[in-house]
Amino acid sequence: MQKNLQLAKQLNVAAWIITAVVLLLVGLMRRVKIPLPEGVDFGFLPPFHATMNALTAVVLLVALYFIKQKNVKAHRRAIFTAMAFSVLFLLSYVAYHFTTPETIFGDLNHDGQLSAEELAAVGSTRTVYLVILLSHIVLAAVSLPFILFTFIRGYTGQVERHKKMARWVWPVWFYVAVTGPVAYFMLMPYYP
Question: Which residue of 34, 45, 152, 164 is 20 to 30 Å from 79, comparing CA positions?
């Protein structure tokens, strides 16, 4: 048990470092653009992001089902899978945003700005999109360390602490995983 607590402490430090690095990268990716070599385009990544988020949501439902059935081994495998999908999403998301101009909801002519006509054309749908997107981004950022801490508690055998955290972390993670594809499908008509 002492070994598990020591491991948990080490993993908690790693979780804070990972969180700080991820938040720093996400903060920088809209300001810093890295040019890609001629002929290389990461424009194919947004549907991949939506797919990774959707798969994460499905696997989180599977994980919930397994734990409700008291099948801890299958639950653990599902959570490892959800974590893997989330990591793949995050790596490709950061790579895309460091290398690709931002797509703006409503920007039909792809000039990077919303004209009065474009804004009028999308109307209140833009507000709905922004509410979904902003809640997705804020909850993703806030929940990241807690997802990692919940995982660590389960991984290190702190079952009761894991359960307490998972009761509120799971719904937030699920919401983030579902709203990612929703935001993508709403933005899809405006990709170049």
Answer: 45
